[in-house]
Design brief:
Helices cover 66% and strands 0% of the residues. It is an all-alpha fold. It has one domain: MazG-like (Helix Hairpins, Orthogonal Bundle), CATH 1.10.287.
Amino acid sequence: MGLEEAQKAVDKWISQYKEGYWPIYEMFARLTEEIGELAREINHRFGHKKKKAIEDKKEIADELGDLIFTICCIANSQRISLRKAFQKTMDKMYKRNGNRFKKK
């Protein structure tokens, strides 16, 4: 699924509900919560803070999926094409860092 399809899928799901998209500040708060959950899982797996025996194991992929969903919500509510935004970022990266770290 590409970015456009992801945004359409999220919009289709959100459109089922009368409330629609949350206000942007609430979606941003949700995004930070999801980033925190990803950070916690990465820290448990690769950092010094290991999970307690009573804590459920979460998958990094699931946490990334939650982030993508929330980012799609924000983009849709602001009528932003993630495909175009990402392409602009990639163009910037190649222009700014084009010769940096290239394989020899």
